[in-house]
Automatic annotation (TrEMBL), chains A, B, C, D:
Pfam annotation, one family: MazG-like
Protein name: Nucleotide pyrophosphohydrolase
Gene3D superfamilies: MazG-like
Originating species: Marilutibacter maris
GO terms classed as biological process: nucleoside triphosphate catabolic process
GO molecular function, one term: nucleoside triphosphate diphosphatase activity
Length: 125, 125, 125, 125
């Protein structure tokens, strides 16, 4: 049953900060609203808010945007990390292990010899 | 200049795994493609892939989807974490501190007395 | 009840093509899966697929991408239009009227004197 | 060169309303900001705003949300249609023809015999 198990694995943040996130949710009785769909949707919406900061930005203006909007960008990143932490916690997912497995898969899909200096997708090689 | 500083702060993963992500990128000469816009876009696209797993799913089917698709869901989460790790690294962002600040802000926007048991947005109270 | 009324207003496509879209859906008994959430989610997912075509593209490469990938881009646009047509139909929404109202609102939010040549959002003026 | 040709094909709206959209853009000198990437990004961002209306909504609450939030939903749909109209115009794309082609493709990918009453993706049959 959701949440799937206690989050001994969620290593994206310090254990104490994750505990504070979980306490924040528990005090507001918000776990009832969290499931794979609502958290995935929320992550997508926060990712859209992050993306909004470069919506109309030309390549030549990118660095200036980062400098000027850094506090706002940090907030959007924090929002994504918070939601991702709830999801990872509720799934009982070992992030470190999941990333290691994905990195190994990516290494096979994007061998250095083919991928070096190229932004092509693996199915375009 | 992007990347803004070396990532002594990126605590989402172990330092050694982050180093392996950075080495993976460096071996492929991919840092040239990474900036605020391309990484934000990529995070949004991976969030969409995660969201796809519940695209047509009814409330009553959510738990079954998590059980059946767990390996795929873990891969999508890993993709988001990897891209977020590059972004956090390149911004020189202290995730722990950013999340603490956002949590404090959220506590002000969503006081327990108003927010308990409610999925309303703060501007709807 | 969803769908809210018959779509005498959905003018995004010719009436005959909209009828073929509705017949396509009816033959597959797919209306049961369509509601505000699933259609909004699907539009967001198709928008992500369109966005993927410029994920890593520099300003200077944009025109070349349009030329080379035109057939794929047309398919993604068509996917969005199809889903939007179902949504507009099911909401019984008068697109022409809705766009006219939004255009009037945008004219107030972005007066020529302030907005000319600027990509700023209305709340940044 | 972008925009690719004059939009004799953009049939999503009446010709006169499309002309007013183009005039709105021209008066503000905004065509300089519009290309495949910025318009795709903007469509994705507006799709996210539409999606936000069902972010935390349970199946049983969906109809109520449509009833209560209809004016806001219509605005979000209008935003997507406006951006899509600019994109279709600038690409010189024949929407009617593109949708017809996609519908024919979908009919091959989702034959009635396999797809009837099923929300599976074509690669899951």
């Amino acid at each position: 049953m959701w949440p799937f198990e206690h989050a001994q694995y969620a290593t994206m943040l310090s254990r104490s900060l994750l505990d504070r996130l979980l306490q924040f949710r528990s005090e507001r009785d918000w776990a009832q609203f969290h499931n794979l769909r609502t958290l995935s949707t929320s992550i997508a919406l926060e990712a859209a808010e992050l993306l909004e900061h470069t919506q109309w930005v030309r390549d030549s203006e990118l660095e200036q945007v980062v400098t000027e909007r850094r506090p706002l960008i940090e907030q959007e990143v924090a929002d994504i990390v918070i939601l991702l932490s709830y999801l990872v916690n509720d799934l009982g997912l070992d992030v470190e292990k999941a990333v290691e497995a994905k990195l190994a898969l990516n290494a096979r899909k994007y061998p250095v010899a083919l991928a070096k200096g190229s932004a092509k997708k693996y199915n375009e090689f």
